[in-house]
Amino acid sequence: MSYVEAFRQRLLEGGNKRDFAIVTLYTYTGIRRSECVNLRLDQINLIAKEIYVVGKGDKQRTVYLNDKTVHAIREYLKVRNSDSPYLFVSRQSEKMAASRINQIFNQYSDIITPKMLRHYFCSHALDTGDYKIHEVANQAGHSNVQTTLIYSNPSARQMKEKANKL
After folding, report:
1. Backbone angles phi, psi at 64, to 5 degrees
2. What is the distance between the terminal CA atoms of the chain, rounded to a whole angstrom?
3. Most buried of 26, 36, 107, 116, CB within 10 angstroms?
């Protein structure tokens, strides 16, 4: 089990469906913290497995969801008790503060941060070979593919495996 899956498992066992949905969304979409806290219910289509994100510079993009993310959000929505237009709410506000996201991560890990999960998504999507570089750039909201190339550096193990194939 990867360190990210172990982290998600700790949150799942913690029983807070909102926090688990947040971490799952980060893990499998690569969204930014500001995008997460500003995500509104009307931007989510769980049937189509899409969210419509407003990113840096008010640029809009469609982010595609996997089954794990859809399931985590559905489970959270079953217990969400708010009239707020925002997906993630807190007891104090109709919109979760960005600092609260950091607190959630700190509660379950001394190492993993929202930014790390964004990096994890980008690297993992490229490592699997299922995504092309421009697809990861689009999903992560990178306006320049050069930004995404940072995540494409193969590990020493991967390079040795490739060398063995020659």
Report:
1. -95, 140
2. 30
3. 26
Please give the angle made by the CA atoms of 17, 95 and 61, to the nearest 5 degrees.
Answer: 85
pLDDT for 56-83, tens place per residue? 888 888 889 999 999 999 999 999 999 9
Evaluate the CA torsion angle 15, 17, 22, 28 in order and state its sign: positive
Q: What is the pLDDT of residues 28-38, one digit of tens each?
A: 998 988 899 99
Tokens standing for residue 56: 């840096």
Amino acid at 84: S
How many Å apart are CA 78 and CA 74, to the nearest integer? 6
pTM of the model: 0.83
Contacts for 112 with CB less than 8 Å, ≥ 6 apart: 3, 4, 7, 105
d(CA 102, CA 119): 16
Cα–Cα distance, 56 to 142 (Å, whole number):
9
